[in-house]
């Protein structure tokens, strides 16, 4: 099977061209599942042209039996389908108090899809991981040269590692998205899906697994997609990003929306986290001075966002700031402000959505 044509929904917001980085209009959130064409797209290098008929996944390194697996070999193994919410680690970057490097995501660097594939654990079990192994490096076929935040010293492949202590039974090597072959922009013919982790771990166009006996120090593990973290009395050190932090986010009203004074309006949104599930959600319609509980409209599911709503009748005209915040089943809470140690990543403080309440007949009504 030759590479299919990309399918992109109208309304995707272009954040970068060459390679394309596309944001989902979060205000269009209407259900748990995002269509492949509307799912946000994050790429570092041009989309490689790959053929499923000649594709192979190499498994090498600290394994007893190095493997060369075709797509057919992988599809012949026991499959599982998981609904997973994936968020770019830089989502909401535009809302940082100071302009930061990187793709200028607003609210839509997050989406949810059904992914079908074989577990990473099953593939590594077939290869036979040797004693002393520490991590598995996942490498994509995409490649290019990085200049920001630092030069990469020539062309490199996109690659990230996962610790072997992670539950690799949950990690998918996916070949289908929402019941169909992966679109090119989402990693055709094979990609990784790491439930509960930021999207940088979900390596696209996956063509190599290498088991190693040391911490991986690649570009996208240390230079990028890492944060500063203090360890006792020693200076802070770079730590790779991993699990998503808790976040609640407002879909409607959208930023700068005009709503009608005195008319019922349904505030909607979603909350998600990497560990546990969102347990409670609160909404403020006065810039954080007071909070009221929202109600869930979807059940709690591990690694899947949970949709919520709040009925509100605006009683005062003029500018308003709406915020949402959540608490997880693990007791995680959103910070009031962004942690500078996270740089331009892991932006999880409540995002203020500025709107206007108007008594004019032309005010936009809630659909």
Automatic annotation (TrEMBL):
Keywords: Metal-binding, Molybdenum, Oxidoreductase. It comes from the Bacteria. Gene3D superfamilies: 2.60.40.650, Oxidoreductase, molybdopterin-binding domain. GO terms for biological process: sulfur compound metabolic process. Residues 44-219 form the Oxidoreductase molybdopterin-binding domain. Its cofactor is Mo-molybdopterin. Pfam families: Mo-co_dimer, Oxidored_molyb. GO terms for molecular function: heme binding; molybdenum ion binding; molybdopterin cofactor binding; sulfite oxidase activity. Residues 242-337 form the Moybdenum cofactor oxidoreductase dimerisation domain. InterPro entries: Ig_E-set, MoCF_OxRdtse_dimer, Mopterin_OxRdtase_euk, OxRdtase_Mopterin-bd_dom, OxRdtase_Mopterin-bd_sf. PANTHER family: SULFITE OXIDASE, MITOCHONDRIAL, SULFITE REDUCTASE. This is Sulfite oxidase. It comes from Deinococcus radiophilus.
